[in-house]
Specification:
Length: 161
């Protein structure tokens, strides 16, 4: 399944981060309902929202939309897994969580001096955002990302009974 392009409402900041890290192209907007719906329609993006009213407005306008009811991040991810989304536990296919651009591998030598020395000494694989230049690696913070996704996967399976 090709990854749908997404537009998310402003209540879903953490979920947006996880979606981008998993390679989803996600627009994240702080603006009025009308602007969000207009953009979703114009760019044929799927709206993900925690706002029931906004969700219903989207459906009435024929815009594809997903209503996320949970507040906790792992429950939110579980809801999307049950709708066919896939979450990654490494940055290999990630988009930049900050600016939503493509991330590509970069040679280790090229990040010398641009990442903390202890990271440079222990990590061999790096990725760089093509647009904002931020450098990513599979470091300690991925442990908690991985745990959150694993929790979500357990909850998603559980909900099938
Ligand atoms: Zn970026």
């Amino acid at each position: 399944m090709e990854k749908p392009k997404i537009i998310a409402d402003s209540m879903l900041g953490r979920l947006v981060r996880y979606l981008r890290l998993s390679g989803y192209d996600v627009l994240y907007m702080r603006c009025s309902d009308e602007e969000i719906l207009g953009t979703a329609e114009r760019l044929s993006r799927v709206l993900i929202t925690r706002d029931k009213e906004l969700f219903e407005k989207a459906i009435n306008k024929g815009i594809k939309a997903i209503y996320v009811k949970s507040q906790e991040i792992d429950d939110q991810i579980a809801e999307l897994i049950n709708k066919g989304f896939k979450f990654n536990k490494t940055p290999a296919e990630a988009r930049c969580p900050i600016c939503n651009s493509d991330v590509e591998p970069i040679e280790k030598e090229k990040v010398k001096g641009r990442v903390p020395e202890r990271v440079y000494n222990y990590i061999d694989e790096f990725w760089i955002c093509k647009k904002c230049g931020k450098i990513y690696w599979h470091g300690g913070h991925w442990k908690s990302i991985k745990e959150t996704i694993e929790n979500a996967e357990r909850k998603a399976v559980g909900s099938y009974g």
